[in-house]
Amino acid sequence: MQRNLLSSYVLSVVAAVVVLKFNLLPTVLAGMAVHVVTTKLARRLPIKGEGAAQEAAVIALSVAVVASFTAAGFGLYSVMKGFQGFSALLEASAETLEKVRQSLPESMAIALPASADELRENAVSFLRENGKGLSSAGAAGVITFVHIVIGMVIGGMTSIARVRVADHGHSFLAELYSRARMLTDSFQKVVFAQLKISLVNTALTACYLAVILPLFDVHLPMVTLLVMVTFLAGLIPVIGNLISNSVIVILSLGTSPMVGVASLVFLVVVHKLEYFLNAKIIGHEVNARAWELLCAMVTLEAVFGLHGVIAAPVLYAWLKAELTQTQSI
Q: Angle at Cα 37 formed by Cα 35 and Cα 38, nearest 5°?
C-alpha cells in the first residue's frame, strides 16, 4: 500500500514537471475546467444512478460545456480583435510613456523607455521568452488552440468515466485517482475563489472608469477593453490586479498628472483590498495566505517562466492538501 502511494506521488510530480516544461498547461487547465463544470452540473441532473440514461445525460452535458467554452473563447477573441486587441492598448501606453518621459527630469526619465518602439520591443521580447504556449497567431497559436480543444474533450471524457477505487486489483490506480481528485479539488477551489476576487476587482474598476472619472469629465480611452483586461488579469492571484491597474495609471497620466495620481491611489486601495480578499476567500478555501501564494509564484516563475506563475496557486494548494491528508493519516 505504501509503495503504491509513493509511486503515485512520484508519477504526479513527474507529470506536473512535464506539463510545465513542455507548455501543456493550457491543455491541462482547459481539461480540468471542463471536468469541474461538467461534474458540478451533473450533480444537479434529475436523473440519478449509474444507468445508460445517466451516462447519456452526462455525455450531452459535457458536449454542451465544451461547446459553450469554445463559443466563449471565440466570442472573447472577436471582441478583443474588434478593439484591435492588446496592440492598441500597448500603443496607447507607449505613447503616454513617451509624453511623460519628455516632461520628467533626465535622471528620472532614463528609467522609462525612450520611445514607443522600445516599449513594444520590450513587450515582444517578454512574450517571446515567457509566452510561447500562449501565442494566438501563427503555427504556435494553432497548435495551442488544438491542444486546448483536446484538453476540453479529455475533461469531458473524464467527467463521464467512473473509477472504481474499491477494486482491490488496482490499488495503484486508486492512489493515482486520489492524487488526481485532490488536484481537481484544489483547482476548483483556487479558480472559483479567484473568480470571485476578479469579479469584485472588475466591478470596482468599471465603476471607477465608467462612472467616477466621467463625473469629473475625464474619459480614458478603451474603457471596455480595460475592463476586460482587468477581469482576465484578475484571474492571476496577487499580481493580476497590479498588472491591470498599472495600465490604467499609465493611460491616466496621458490625461493629466492629477488623474494619474488619482488612479495611483485607486491602484493602492484596490490592491490592498485584494490582499484582504485573498486572505478571506483563497485563504479560507485552500488554507494559504497571500504571501505564501506569492512565494510559490516567484519560485515557479524562476523555474518555468509565465506558466509557473499561472500554475503556482493550484499546485501550492494541491501540495498543502496532500500534506494535510498525510498528517491526518
A: 65
pLDDT digits (tens, 9 = 90+) for 275-316: 677 666 776 777 777 778 778 888 998 899 878 888 888 999
How many other CB atoms are there within 10 angstroms of residue 78's CB atom? 9
Cβ-Cβ contacts under 8 Å for 319 (sequence gap 6 or more): none
Q: Which amino acid is at 223?
A: V
Distance CA 314, CA 41 (A): 22
Grid coordinates standing for 322? 496532500
Q: Which residues contact 129 (CB under 8 A, 6 or more apart)?
A: 305
pTM, rounded to two decimals: 0.72
Number of domains in the chain: 1
CA–CA separation, 301 and 108 (whole Å): 29
What's the pLDDT tens digit per position in 238-264? 677 777 877 888 888 778 888 888 888
Cell, residue 98 = 513617451
**Under a CB-based contact definition with an 8 Å cutoff, are residues 177 and 163 in contact?**
yes
Q: Where are the alpha helices (DSSP H) in 161-305?
A: 171-207, 213-215, 223-234, 240-255, 257-277, 283-286, 290-304
Domain that holds residue 35: 2-328
At CB < 8 A and 24+ separation, what contacts does 247-250 make?
247/89, 247/93, 248/205, 248/209, 248/220, 250/93, 250/96, 250/97
Written as one string, the DSSP assignment of 24-65 is -HHHHHHHHHHHHHHHHHHTT-S--SSSHHHHHHHHHHHHHH
Of residues 145, 162, 266, the one with CA closest to residue 204: 266
Measured from the Cβ of residue 55, the count of other Cβ atoms closer than 10 Å reads 14
CA distance 235 to 231: 7
Comparing C-alpha atoms, which of 172, 320, 173 is closest to residue 328? 320
CA 34, CA 22: separation in Å to the nearest integer?
A: 21
